[in-house]
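From the shared-data thread, chain only:
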Amino acid sequence: MNAISTIRIDHDTLPNHFDRSRPDAVAESIEATLRDGGITADASDVISHIKIELPTTQLAAASNMLASLQVI
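Structure, as tokens:
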């Protein structure tokens, strides 16, 4: 069994290039970017934040990608 990590990104902290009025679309965009980079991730809008779940073994790579997107 693989360990799962969760990253939470507050909607209010999203950079301006994301449409904060469509958090579901932001989650889909982030998930697609991670998957394109080879990271198995599930991103979803959870009322006040974007929740990203991924294997802990991919946490460092995901963090680098999320930093390049300016979301962390």
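The chain has two helices and three strands.
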